[in-house]
Amino acid sequence: MFKIPFLDIPPLQRAAGTVRLPGSKSISNRVLLLAGLSEGQTAVHDLLDSDDTRVMLASLRELGCQLEQREDGVLLVTGIGAQLKGSCAKLFLGNAGTAMRPLTAALALLAATQGGEFELSGVPRMHERPIGDLVDALRALGCQIECLGNEGYPPLRLSGPSALKLNEPVRVRGDVSSQFLTALLLALPLVSAQPVVVEVVGELISKPYVHITLELLARFGIQVQREGWQRFTIPAGSRYRSPGAVHVEGDASSASYFIALGALAAIEQPLRIEGVGSASLQGDVRFAEAASAMGARIEAGPNWLAVQRGAWPLKAIDLDCNHIPDAAMTLAVMALYADGPSTLRNIASWRVKETDRIAAMATELKKLGAQVEEGPDWLRVHPLRLWQSASIHTYDDHRVAMCFSLAAFHGLLGKELVGPRVTVRIEDPNCVAKTFPDYFETLFEVVSADPADVPVITIDGPTASGKGTLADEVAHELGYWILDSGALYRATGLAASRAGIDLDDAQAVAAVARGLDLHFRKGRATLAGEDVTEALRAEATGLMASQVAAHQPVRDALQQLQLDFRRAPGLVADGRDMGTAIFPDAGLKVFLTASAATRAERRHKQLISKGISASIEGLRADLEARDARDKSRSASPLKPAADALSLDNSAQTIEESRDLLLRWWAERGPFSVQR
Ligand SMILES: O=C(O)C1=C[C@@H](OP(=O)(O)O)[C@@H](O)[C@H](O)C1
Ligand SMILES: C=C(OP(=O)(O)O)C(=O)O
User: I need a surface site. Which of 114, 319, 431, 453 has the fewest CB within 10 A?
Assistant: First the structure.
């Protein structure tokens, strides 16, 4: 997760590999509610773990469901069997429409029949998202619902008991959100001693989501009879029956970003997307048809898609997007790469989602330089040829953040679209946590850039100057990768000495370096599968590193390995020759020093905290000896790059050093002057 104020995405060139999608939000929250209302236990496989499902889980727990996470990741939900366990609760539902709307219906009916009082609230935007049509339908049935803020909007208070009138059809409007109908269909089996009829007033939007609802109800033993999209009957005596186990498909709306990515940038071979395919329950898989119409080459299996660039530039489209409201936002960004203006129609519901999405898309696309027109329920996007760097405001809308990441693809994508190479800044990237917390990590696994376009910050300096800590801090703030080049030398020294090789034998050690099976993941380092994080930090390993680093053949062997760390969105590399030898074109080079006394003191503290005793004088003497060796070695001696900025951090806290570096970095970037 990128919990940072912004994420700068450099120009991206290609996409390749395989993406495994997270679970579908729409299926996850429906399955959770159905399992929660059922009797007995349901094993939920591949559940989405995101903000929207967390609020649903917290609510179910509050309502008395038992939730148990099995070691294999499967969630066991023991439902309440349609019987309230407590008579009051206050539930916070964030910005999850799939939690707010269905829980409103379920708890209003439970309160009416069993008594109780429930308050449902969310984030400020949730309190601006309409729920009046659902409230009206439930009130007409006899439920007691109070809107605690503005009429027709959450927060809500649901109370009872109260008498229900079930012999007349329940009428609900379907033209603002399909979630109102979905909510009623999911909840009305609670009161289906007699057949219950639901009638939709007005044109139903987002119909494929109602299809998901009906299919999942069927899996929980409830066969709703449907007459077109206007009339639905829940048979008398319907009861939630757990199917025992449910598998959640990958999220088809989340797939849209990678389908688009394939269409834009999978040039040599298709990008494979696993988790949804032709057998999917979700209407948003039909985004693939829209992408094909724009020129993507798509193959589909039951549970996978393979997408490759076909037409280039993409072909403009004019499409009614009512059946794919969420995924269609992705089309608006694809339209920048088309051969003419594209028009997305019948998308009025965009205005009442996480933000006013028509306005948001128009505003942000224009920042990139695009010409955009909008109407009450449509958006027209003209192709973009002269791109400009833009800082994309994301309005706490996961989909704005995800679809604009695609705007980083251009420049070198074929001769037709050669333009300036620009940076796309995504503000508040963590808003993707609503449905796809690892979106950016997943994206960066499958994209590549021209290394020259990938920003690098180098931090060189003597031992114990705090390079590693500073690099970690800076990389974290920018969402960049880290190269701890010292660790490569340490691992080489460790591997060579474990293999019984004389560390003065330059050729033999270089051979070890070439075959190094070293990986860094989540702060841990593995060497040939063994966790060597601690071993690499040991003083003895540090001395070996210094010894093997003096051999030019070893440095050559490790050079390519180090260059390979230069991947989007950027790299912070720390070591001794990062700015001078490995990344001479780095955008910011820092030479970090601290007095020998300060460094010896820091090292001493570090050792003491690990329970290792050492003398400060001894450590200082070691440091000075190592400095002398590093400075005087003939291969890449330790010295600041000519264009490096010097930073003596003897009197600075780590936060001060970090903030200074970030300031230097910002001054060099495309957003140094506020647009
Ligand atoms: O029922 C669902 O799971 C959803 C229905 C759609 O909402 P609308 O019916 O309001 O368009 C969709 O946008 C939302 O993300 C999920
Ligand atoms: C509209 C969306 O969410 P919600 O389920 O909150 O309606 C969405 O995910 O795009």
Answer: 114
Amino acid at 353: K
Query: Going by CA atoms, what residue is nearest to atom 3 of ligand 2?
Result: 97
pLDDT category of residue 637 using cuts at 50, 70 and 90: confident
| φ/ψ (deg, to 5) at 608 | -60, -40
Domain span including residue 281: 6-22+250-450
- Tell me, in angstroms, the distance from the centre of ligand 1 to residue 643's CA: 53
| Active-site residue flag, 326 | yes
DSSP, residue by residue, 570-590: -EEEEESSIIIII-TT-SEEE
Q: Is the CB of 397 under 6 A from ligand 1?
A: no
Q: Establish whether the linkage from the previous residue to 270 is cis, with ω within 30° of 0.
A: no
Among 116, 171, 164, CA closest to 143: 164
Count CB atoms within 10 A of the CB of residue 537: 15
673 is a domain residue: no
Determine the Cα–Cα distance for residues 492 and 490; give it in Å rounded to an integer: 5
pLDDT of 543 strictly over 60:
yes
The response to whether residue 26 sits with its C-beta less than 6 Å from ligand 1 reads: yes
Alpha carbon distance 413, 41 (integer Å): 51
Same domain, 337 and 434: yes
**Ligand 2 geometric centre to CA of 97 (Å):** 6
For the chain, give the number of residues.
Answer: 675
Look at residues 232, 119, 92 and name the one whose alpha carbon lies nearest to residue 174. Answer: 232
Tally of CA atoms within 13 A in the half-sphere of 126 that contains its CB: 21
Joined tokens for residue 318:
């004019």
| Distance between CA atoms of residues 444 and 12, nearest Å | 10
Q: How far apart are CA 404 and CA 406, in angstroms?
A: 5
The radius of gyration of the chain's CA atoms, rounded to the nearest angstrom, is 29
**Structural domain ending residue among the three candidates 403, 433, 450:** 450
Residue 675 located in a structural domain: no
Prediction pTM value: 0.94
The CA distance from 303 to 250, in Å, is 9
Q: Strands 518-521 and 524-527: what pairing?
A: antiparallel
CATH number for the domain including 11?
3.65.10.10
pLDDT at residue 416, as a whole number: 55
In a shared domain, residues 330 and 375: yes
The answer to whether residues 503 and 544 touch, using CB atoms and an 8 Å cutoff, is yes
The residue written with tokens 């850039």 in the block is 449
Number of domains in the chain: 3
Distances (CA, A) of 15 to 18, 547, 619: 10, 40, 48
Report pLDDT digits (tens) over 383-431: 998 889 999 999 999 999 999 999 998 755 555 554 447 899 999 999 9
Contact (CB, 8 A) for 248 and 23: yes
**ipTM beyond cut 0.90:** yes
Structure tokens at 572: 């912070």
Helix, coil or strand: residue 306: strand
Residues 45 and 133 in one domain: yes
The Cα–Cα gap between 582 and 622 comes to 27
- The helix/strand count (H/E) of the chain reads as 21, 33
* CA angle (284 as vertex; 226, 100 as ends), nearest 5: 70
Q: Of 452, 459, 451, give the one whose Cα is nearest residue 573.
A: 459
